[in-house]
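step: validate -> pass
step: tokenize input -> pass
step: predict -> running
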Amino acid sequence: MPSAYEGTGQNQGQGQGQGQRGTGQMSEQRGTGQASDFRKDVQRLGEDVGMVRESVTSLAKDTVGAARHGAIEVKDTVKQGIDTAKDTVMQGIDIAKEKSGEAADSLKKYVANNPLTSVGVAVGVGLVLGLLLWRPRA
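step: predict -> pass
step: emit ->
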């Protein structure tokens, strides 16, 4: 018994032909819709790539800026360290000058108060240095 959806063979052929044409039109419409969707997807993808490119460029600029800022800070810190070292060395030199001046004054006073002892010490130091530096000739 034919169902309500089944027709006669003749009607079926006609129905199928029409259905196929209808399906073809639907496929074309779907194809057009799919192509349109594909274009939109490609366009959105291009926009997303552009946004990623802008983000990467911005990140690179920020990184370069941070590196420059860091380099400037390092440079300033090194410069401060060098200035501190210079000041410390200069203070050391000043202290050494003062101490050597005091030692020279003290030695002058000692030689003035003990002239014979000073001459004896000078002769002894000269003799020791002469023996240490003398080399026999071969």
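step: describe -> Residues 26 and 103 are 112 Å apart (CA to CA).
step: cleanup -> pass
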